[in-house]
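Notes from hallway chat w/ T.B., transcribed later so I don't forget. T.B. wanted the structure written out for a chain they're using in a teaching module, and asked if we could keep both sequence and structure tokens in one place. Agreed to drop them here.
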Amino acid sequence: MIYMLVIAVIFIAELFIKDYIEAKKNEDTCQYILKKHVIIRRYHNKGALLNLGENRRRVVAVVSIVFSVMMVLIFLITLTNRGNHFMKTGLALLLGGAFSNTYDRMRRKYVVDYFSFNTKFPRITAIVFNIGDFCIAIGAAMTAIAVILNPRI
């Protein structure tokens, strides 16, 4: 099924990218790409979004697992319904990113983030992301829109 493939591609791609970043990049070096608009760097996020909860890693890991399990259950229920392709795609994106980051939390004890946007605003430039973060955000937005447009889902 295409949705399972989306989850697998995100998870596997992130695994390879994160392993590459861990092996080839130092935390104190930056590489500018795309006309210096994007910065490649290695960052270990020991918490959740913006390192929140970095001193409570176990709680963050448990919440991440519980969230992932809840989304899997919703995804499986949604898969049994005909249609709802927008929601199924959103959930697949969300799960691909969530699995990747949860895997990092369990295996590495931190999430590998590896790129930033070079902006005029230092606080925004300082935020380091991974592709899974964007998959989670886009997938969550798509899922929310699907529910708003069709509350019977």
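Follow-up for T.B.: The first strand starts at residue 31 and ends at 33. Might be a good example for the class.
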